[in-house]
From TrEMBL:
<feature type="domain" description="Nephrocystin 3-like N-terminal">
    <location>
        <begin position="202"/>
        <end position="366"/>
    </location>
</feature>
<feature type="region of interest" description="Disordered">
    <location>
        <begin position="53"/>
        <end position="73"/>
    </location>
</feature>
<dbReference type="Pfam" id="PF24883">
    <property type="entry name" value="NPHP3_N"/>
</dbReference>
<protein>
    <recommendedName>
        <fullName>Nephrocystin 3-like N-terminal domain-containing protein</fullName>
    </recommendedName>
</protein>
<dbReference type="InterPro" id="IPR056884">
    <property type="entry name" value="NPHP3-like_N"/>
</dbReference>
<keyword id="KW-0677">Repeat</keyword>
Amino acid sequence: MDPISITGLIIEVSNVLSCVIKYTKAVQGSKDDMRKLSEELFALKGILEHLSTGIGDNTPTSEKETESESSGPFDRDVMARVLFTTNEFLQTLLQELEEPATKFKKLKQKLEWPFTQDQVNAHLVRLERVKSWLILVITADTAAAEKDLHQEITSLSKNLKEDLRIREQERVQKDNEALFKWIAPVSPADSHLRASNGRRIGTGRWFTKSYLKAWLRDPLDDKRILFLVGKCMTALVTLAQIVGELTNMAQHDPNLCFAYFYCTISNTASQAAVNILGSLVAQLARSNPGILEDIRSLYDKIPKTQTHSQPVNFSALEDAIIRHSNGKSRIVILVDAPNESSEMEYIERSLLYMARLSLNIRILVTTTSTRASSKEANFLNIRAETMEEDIKTFIQYRLEHDTTLRNLTPKLQAEIAETLFKDADGSSVHHQ
């Protein structure tokens, strides 16, 4: 839209109005026609002045022209033609109303109104048409401006909500970190890393590809706890393999969540039953934050300077896991080597208690020994024939990567492999 053309039209309308007013003072009669024409001209002048302000658009002229060419509701050429014809019309009115050059014409002007009734009506219709079209332009531009404003407000609102969500998430995370330190002072991450490093590609499949999935999906088995009984390192590496398998399964099943823990003889804190259960709750809370709510109320009652001397209530941890295993969620708990803890009986009793009270809980324990009975749990003994392929894989790995063994002759390597396999008795060569 060319603001110079609109400004020019405003000037022309003002000139025509000036001539009409002069005629009104000089001509006898036709006052009604002059009044109507003046009103229409004043209205047109007001519309043009509104358009000249840019209709509230503060963008530079070059940007407005670019936007108009690309997405404006009216064609620029059409607008230019309307302004041009309007200007011609105003010029015609000026010529008809211009002051006569001779005394005779001046006298005639005082006596006659230059337009017939039909001409006046035609001029009024033409003025009304121009006004209507320009009003449509104003309305369309206003609607476009309101649409842009609405989009900006919507975008701002969305950004504010996202910012508030992130801030709230950061606040909750910060609060939870302190709570996690209270309920889970021991992390299984380092033990899991060591166990994973001792694992070899292809091992553990004897369990993960058959026993594991069948055990997880059997709704009729009322013994929802399974003990894998075998050599120490064998059980440890097997549990690491199961954690990896469950991680893959959880990526495709939003209702599956799991937690694991390794008891180690070198870390006394990892043998405490309350630390084991606390770590399990903290891990489950990552995918199910609601599990922390009841425990948080206990934490808030303790002075923060005394949290290190007042551990979380063990029963509260059990109840939190049981309560949040209802509905669609399936919880899998993995615990390695509770036999290395002086609280072994207490730990096993707690695990059996949770498995008995919730249909959606599955608990897997890898251990060298257990006090649980066959009436309340399932057992799977890890023997040499059970994991024959794993043992062969470990032996082959050692022969290929050990600096001493890999330089031996093939015959001697074969003899060593045969001897190691016979003596393995269900234990990995890594342990040997």
